[in-house]
Amino acid sequence: MTRIAEALERLSPAPVSAPDFTQADAFIWHTQPDRLEPVAQVSRVALDLLLGVDRARDTLLENTMQFAGGYAANNALLWGARGMGKSSLVKAVHAAVLAEGLPCKLVEIQREDLPSVGRLLGHLRRAPDVRFLLFCDDLSFSHDDTHYKSLKAVLDGGIEGRPANVLLYATSNRRHLMPRDMIENERSTAISPSEAVEEKVSLSDRFGLWLGFHPCTQDEYLAIIDGYCRAYGVSVPAGQLRAEAIEWQATRGARSGRVAWQFFCDLAGRMGRAV
User: Do the beta carbons of residue 141 and residue 180 sit within 8 Å?
Assistant: First the structure.
């Protein structure tokens, strides 16, 4: 009887109790069962250490300040080159808003859990006095993936629509969130090519802000490393630092903020510094 009762509980779990949003400033949405797990300490980079993305930084910070202050704001899609600080910027901006004393919670949802986003919004809607940044990192869709349809009504549409106290920030390496060949295939094989393509790209059109991130130059790459060295008190002769940093990015075949951080971690470790 106990095993039967437990099996029935798994098939039809009891309604989730109202989350306690005073537990933390950030939460992660999990399913099976549905729950919002508080995050005691968010992994962040300070906003002033994010170099080479000044325009995106200022735009996203202003938009988030408006939202946290109770004013109108836009959903934002941060797209572009990998390793250039898209996810770090979202978390750093959230920290900057908290530092101003504005109440705002960061809620992360995984791409695989997008079909459950309606249930998540139900919980957030029942806390109208709290502002929520709904964050989906590395958002993209494959050829046979229909999860993108779950977001359409959330962003703009549907009878209920997006709660006024919720804003969505997503990051992606793709501007339209779909593979280019997927869009081209739709154009070449569909009965109504233009309608098929419109249906595929309409999701990204529902983001009010498109913030592009592009590969950094060598000077920006070196400036990022200099900023890390100053912030963590690591002192290296300028010539040696430049030579080692350039050699590191040459072996990686790429320059980005992530590569700069990886080089700095290696450098700090060799010098016996914890970061």
Answer: no
- φ, ψ of residue 175 to 5 degrees: the values are -70, -40
DSSP secondary structure, 35-56, as one string = EEEE-SS-----GGG--S-HHH
**pLDDT tens by residue, 3-19:** 876 666 665 555 556 67
CA pair distance 84, 218, nearest whole angstrom: 13
Q: How far apart are CA 166 and CA 67, in angstroms?
A: 9
pTM listed for this prediction: 0.83
pLDDT in tens, 65-109: 999 999 999 999 999 888 999 999 999 999 999 999 998 999 999
Nearest residue to 17 (alpha-carbon basis) of 6, 40, 33, 41 = 33
C-alpha angle 82/85/90, rounded to 5°? 125
Select from 203, 174, 214 the least CA-distant residue to 75. Answer: 203
User: d(Cα 274, Cα 267) in Å, to the nearest integer?
Assistant: 10
Distance of CA 115 to the CA centre of its chain: 18
φ, ψ dihedrals at 21, nearest 5°: -80, 0
Q: Are strands 26-30 and 105-108 parallel, antiparallel or unpaired?
A: parallel
